[in-house]
Amino acid sequence: MEVSGAVDKHPVGEDIGKVCDMEEPLEIPIISDLTMVLGSISQIEKKKAAHRKIRNKQQHLNRSLIQILKAIKEEEILTLARLSSALLCSSMATMKCLEGGTRTKNNGCGVRQNTKGSHKMAGETGKPTL
User: Fold this and answer.
1) How far apart are CA 26 and CA 14, in angstroms?
2) Which of 17, 50, 69, 70 meets the CB 3.0–4.6 Å disulfide criterion with 26?
3) Of 98, 60, 72, 130, whose CA–CA distance to 119 is shortest?
4) How far is CA 47 from the centre of its chain?
5) Helix (H) or strand (E) holding 65
6) What tens digit of pLDDT does each residue of 74-99 get?
């Protein structure tokens, strides 16, 4: 059983845990207005329901991710990591190229830009390798 609110006319404002001689206060004040207590209980229940919904979605996503990771081989993960890194460097180089004109630059992550605006990984011969 869970205490969510307390209604009484005499010890208004007192903690219900203290009034009932519990070991610890419950941090639930006694209120004289039943409508206010029911309204706060309703709000608390809505927040709890939303929290449960979010937690369930997170658990579902975690299970899905674990299943996906179990299905992917280590070699495929390394390939995806290299591709992701290459795409990040390419997008960074494109942004620098747009900011700085058409000069040849090396942005520090192995991407070389030529004057035509195309981008190649350092040492690349035109064929994508992963």
Assistant:
1) 10
2) 17
3) 98
4) 19
5) helix 34-71
6) 788 788 888 888 887 777 777 666 65
**What residue type is 39 in one-letter code?**
G
Residues 18-50 have pLDDT tens digits of: 998 899 998 888 988 888 888 888 888 898 899
Residue 55, amino acid: R
Alpha helix (H) residue ranges in the chain: 16-19, 34-71, 74-100
**Domain residue extents for the chain:** 6-71, 74-121
Q: What does each C-alpha distance from 9 to 32, 34, 36 come to in angstroms? A: 5, 10, 14
Q: Residue 14 and residue 39: Cα distance in Å, rounded? A: 19
Please, is 94 exposed, middle or buried when counting C-beta atoms within 10 Å of its C-beta (0-12, 13-18, 19+)?
middle
Q: Which of 30, 37, 35, 38 has the alpha carbon at shortest distance from 8?
A: 30
